[in-house]
UniProtKB/TrEMBL annotation:
Keywords: Acetylation, Hydrolase. It is an enzyme of class 3 (hydrolase). It comes from Crenobacter oryzisoli. One of its GO terms (molecular function) is glutaminase activity. It comes from the Bacteria. It catalyses: L-glutamine + H2O = L-glutamate + NH4(+). This is Glutaminase. It holds the Pfam family Glutaminase. Belongs to the glutaminase family. Its EC number is 3.5.1.2. InterPro entries: Beta-lactam/transpept-like (IPR012338), Glutaminase (IPR015868).
């Protein structure tokens, strides 16, 4: 292993390069409340397993984590269900948009993977059967992993999505018709919208991601939440499915397991070394942060580090 890169200098170089790119993307507006976030926000944070932290931009400002929550709900469901989880959700890339319904009909209501909306609804159903208040359990899990005890939901975002969430509602009903949801559709949807509406900063996301860099053990507490094999598998699904139908291009450009959200955040993992979170609200056509993906591409280029 070569000497540690100068992460702070690299983050500052990246910020200068990618900030202007936000003008080429679009802030998500299908959840009207998200459209209010200024497109020119930018933040990036790197937390290493040896305890160093680097950041640039609005790295302590919280934003809507949206689909990044799907990573953490998967961790919770996997801990409960172990191998049996894969009877209800697959682990293949979908090659379709994150909110697509098309494969469900031919594939008997078994979503392709836990990171598209359909898969995350099934995962949320697992949590709804286990916890009286699944959304609170997810919030507590995120507080525990990030160390930020004051994390919370943005109720305005959750309600805004619930009002306009026809597609997710269609999906949940469709999955239910195949018998792959146990709880009432509305219970699952309400929990799902609230999980997506948790607000976290890049610093908090990077801390929360460290357990996946550390083979399943939370570095701060020494708690082994996943086995090394489970952590390896989650990282593999992040690489192949974490950025939807752009996952191939993202792996090609960036070379890190990562999960994106339509709030403009992306959390990426370099196993054995670090977690890196980036936020820029303007999205590309696949729903991934445009400047955020470019920032991660520069990050692996300039540090010379990736999983490959
Ligand atoms: O269900 C939705 O559409 C949103 N709550 C989350 C989608 C999302 O973040 C997709 N990510 N890029």
């Amino acid at each position: 292993m070569t000497a540690s890169p100068d992460y702070q200098a690299i983050l500052e170089t990246i910020a200068a390069k990618v900030r202007p790119l936000a003008a080429q993307g679009r802030v998500a507006d299908y959840i009207p409340e998200l459209a209010k976030v200024p497109a020119d926000k930018f933040a990036m944070a790197v937390h290493t397993l040896d305890g160093r932290r680097f950041a640039v931009g609005d790295a302590d400002e919280r934003f809507s984590i949206q689909s990044i929550s799907k990573l953490f709900t998967l961790l919770m469901a996997l801990r409960m269900k172990k191998e049996t989880l894969w009877q209800r959700v697959g682990r293949e890339p979908s090659g379709n948009p994150f909110n697509s319904l098309v494969q469900l009909e031919h594939e008997q209501g078994i979503p392709r993977n836990p990171f598209i909306n359909a898969g995350a609804l099934v995962i949320t159903d697992v949590l709804c059967r286990h916890f009286v208040q699944a959304d609170r359990a997810v919030l507590e899990f995120l507080r525990r992993l990030s160390g930020a005890t004051d994390l919370n939901f943005d109720s305005a975002v959750a309600e805004s999505e619930a009002e306009h969430g026809y597609r997710n509602a269609a999906m949940a009903n469709f999955i239910k018709s195949f018998g792959n949801l146990d709880s009432p559709v509305d219970t699952v949807l309400q929990s799902y919208f609230r999980q997506c509406a948790v607000r976290m900063s890049c610093q908090e996301l990077a801390t929360a991601g460290l357990l996946l860099a550390n083979h399943g053990t939370v570095p701060a507490s020494g708690e082994a939440l996943l086995t090394p094999s489970e952590a390896k598998r989650i990282n593999a699904i992040l690489l192949t499915c974490g950025t939807y139908d752009a996952a191939g291009d993202f792996a090609f450009r960036v070379g890190l397991p990562a999960k994106s959200g339509v709030g403009g955040g992306i959390l990426a993992i370099l196993p054995g070394e670090l977690a890196v979170a980036v936020w820029s609200p303007a999205l590309d056509e696949n729903g991934n942060s445009l400047a955020g993906a470019m920032a991660l591409e520069h990050f692996t280029t300039l540090t010379g580090r990736s999983v490959f």
